[in-house]
Amino acid sequence: MSNDTEAEALRLDAAEPGHRHLFHVPPADGGRYPEAAYLAGNSLGLQPRATRDELLADLDAWSRLGVEGHLAAERPWLPYHELLTAPAARLVGALPTETVVMNSLTVNLHLLMVSFYRPAGERTRIVIEDSAFPSDSYAVRSQARFHGLDPDTTVVRLTPRPGEDTLRTEDVTGYLAAEGHTVALVLLGGVNYLTGELMDIPAITAAARAAGAVVGWDLAHAAGNVPLSLHDWDVDFAAWCSYKYLNSGPGALAGVFVHERHHGDATLPRFEGWWSTAAATRFQMAPVSRPPATVEAWQISNPPIFAMGPVRTSLELFDSVGMPALRARSLRLTGYLERLLDEVTADRPLRVITPREPRRRGCQLSVRIGAGSANELTRRLRHEHGVIADAREPDVVRFAPVPLYSTYHDCWRVAEALAATVPGVAR
Ligand SMILES: Cc1ncc(COP(=O)(O)O)c(C=O)c1O
Q1: Is GTP-binding found in the keyword set (predicted)?
Q2: Ligand 1 center to residue 346 CA distance, Å?
Q3: 20 to 30 A Cα–Cα from 196, which one of 103, 241, 266, 285?
């Protein structure tokens, strides 16, 4: 890569600085720049600078107030989770009554499947993508077993066509048109963790619902990455984690969406605890719950306040910048990285497998390597160039220029590091 392109990257950054100053960027572990080029926000987002102080303020309330903090803290703990509801709803295009932050992602998927996976008669199948994140695969297989069904025949794994890397929308809708009468649940990743493909959520949701199936989305790689309109798209349910694009820290609390048409439906099975009953009835100590007609009926336990703080801080940041502005920057950054990767991959055993159309992807670009190990390549990128990406064995390396804190210069460093690390082949 030439110095000209580096100068261009620096010019672009000067013209469009983004919000990097709001984050802690790790130091580089090699190479000639002090800060890492951090392209792994699709795995774990960086820490917002505001998080520590906000968390300390919540801890101070505990030290000063003890149990009184439930009502007397500056941000009282009893209704604390409500502070997260409206910004989370805005992020995913939902009504506040449809969104709640609780638990972790796979736990939430299970709690939602308690309600929304109800195999009956010949309608027993669960449709996932073959490249679903393993946790989802394990979750749906265990749900099938829980219902006394054989996971090998109950779980259908949709694969791309021969020679293709990603699913076409028609691959999903075609299956639903042909086999929909056997499908109880469609559970797909909104953005696929491996390929970075953004599925056509509204089209697939409509096809699944037309086939009489329930449709849920794992939005781990979509929330905070791409604009979402879950309510208008008529999605039945969705869940997402907050430690990737939502920058809320390792294992951070997750989000849940349940469409309002399911609220208050007493026929839906649901697991309950004291947080499932309406807030006004919570301390009446009654033996029978009175769940609200909102998604909060899916809550079970009282929420961990110190885990909620970082999610609140992050959601406030998303609110202040706004998804439309982030998506616009994301399209520019990822398009820029794609152009640089096109140059590097042209004469190397590397291939971008993420769809080329910007509307079919978020910020992540996945590169399939034709030789060597993905782990070894990311190790070298990190230690020789200070570029942090992640490997999905055996042969995929993922790069996510995150619009909040990644820069054009980070993208340039990725391309330069790949060019220096992977030998070219003569053409
Ligand atoms: C798409 C997807 N689903 C599920 C999970 C698992 O999430 P958790 O461990 O938070 O349940 C991940 C984790 O990276 C993921 O990427």
Answers
A1: no
A2: 33
A3: 103
